[in-house]
Amino acid sequence: MNQRIAPMAGTGQDHGAQAATVRLTAAQALVRYLAAQRVASEDGSGRTEPLFGGVFAIFGHGNVAGIGEALYQHRHELPTLRAHNEQAMAHSAIAYAKAHFRRRMMAVTTSIGPGATNLVTAAALAHVNRLPVLLLPGDIFVSREPDPVLQQLEDTHDGNVSVNDALKPVSRYFDRIVHPAQLLTALPRALRVLTDAALCGPVTLALPQDVQAMAWDFPASFFTPRLVTFHAPAPVAAELDAALTQLQRAKRPLIVAGGGVLYARATPALKALATARGIPVAETQAGKGSLAWDDPLNVGAIGVTGSPAANALARDADCVLAVGTRLQDFTTGSNSLFAQAHVIGVNANGFDALKHNGLAVQADARLTLAALDGELAAWCADANWTARARRLADDWRASVAQLTQAQAAPAARSGLPYDADVIGAVQRSANRSDTEDIVVCAAGTLPAELHKLWRAGQPGAYHVEYGYSCMGYEIAGGLGAKLARPEREVIVMVGDGSYLMMNSEIATSVMLGAKLIVVVLDNRGYGCINRLQQACGGAPFNNLFEDCAQGPLGAPRIDFASHARSLGAQAEHVANITELEAALQRARAASRTYLISIDTDPARTTEEGGWWWEVAVPEVSPRANVREARERYDAQVAARGGRAPHETTHAAPATPSSERSEDEPGHEERT
User: Which positions fall inside the Thiamine pyrophosphate enzyme central domain (predicted)?
Assistant: First the structure.
């Protein structure tokens, strides 16, 4: 997606004004430039609003005196928000951009040392998910006169290296500003990357602290308010023709809708094509919500965490139209799910379009879907295929309704509810006359259950970060989504493991008045990886608290509600689904962030759906369970060229804990 930046009408700039200069520090110029960027309002009213919704900042050595002072000067045009963890505030900024479908974004500034390196994980997350965020870490002195300064890393073979160089491989564009004049080229380049779908991702501008404070005479025109418009490239004729030829040969086509559908705002075009041509639509994690959950041709989630409807159709499809997706292994079942189909990849990013040995159409999703529909003439999918898709979709929706009704679910061995029970309670608690909830999640078992079971009625209702599957994103991401969509209820669903990794932005949400509902599912450890460990033949080890090394006092019993209250939230612990439903009503009525914790079963998952996922199993082991798992693995890999066994390695438990095999005494594995 190309970008054109034009001065806004009515600015009164003439040739003489264009030649004028204004003396500013580099930090002041940077902040003033960011504050001047505008975008058309999303409501179609013709109004404009700031491109940057604000700057998250944790001040420290290397940014408080320079960019901190500049942000204070422009605090009304470009709000500064104080957070509690640098990685978390970057997650919040990324979530803000995701909730705005990449049309608005935020910046983040940190100190020069640990504050800067705390950004690396968040930058990788933004890179993988193709989401814009502007990172502004402080840096060491360009003059080097006070070397080594506090927090400076000294490299013995390159004097130009600082810790910020760790951000280079996880940034889509990186620059170190060594003179104020450099901003005249660096900032437009940064903005291009942030607003171009083919390039989109994190941008890092490292800001040496002496350069931040250095003054220079900038052209006044550089700070003229500018309207950033987004150019959506149309498909190239030759690529579109090749896609049309391939699609018209198909009798059993399937559309896989990825995040690019949402970012291109292509839902109307997707629905029009699918409905007119009778093509079923399956959704990736990033693309969930591309069609309403009750659309007759929405067959649900695809892949390792997919529905039985979507995966059955993917297995039998002769053509897959992959729109706005990277086709990562969870979507393709480690390249086993639709290996027999011809793939057409539609993506603004050419690298992402060229996946699965398919035809590539490097173009905007909305324009491409509309062009395909307009050129397909009388072609439709085989009527029997469309009828089968509708039937499977209806059957799956009925299954979802049953799976999320806790009262109808079989009792778990532990007597505790599991994730589907909690998901059902959360969805039943919504007032359907309200704007639809946004559910936020990222890692563990919950993304699998939500991908299958959450009913997303509109684009943006499902906000799950699964490209990087980053534990700790959840609460920070919920904050960013709430800042972007304050009118909607944002519900963060998070496991105890992710909560313990990063929870400090609960305090930020209270401070900013950005109310969240946080539902903590406490299974007392890393339940998802515990099941994967056993599915690969391993003994339960170092995941659930009960299987971890412990001191004489044993594992802690964590009171999540008390902890959340200590951060300023309202909170309570509930004992069952009935209590959860009542607590959710209190949470919805509350005026501040409200946390509810509930104990859940670490072993049980939804058995329906799913697909094989390749996780390498050791070739040799003294454990019989591992050797058996290796045999299954070898068979699955061998079958990948055709149809892999319909087995979910990701979430399925191995032998129940009461039937665990112990290491065989006296056995030696010979190689």
Answer: 240-372
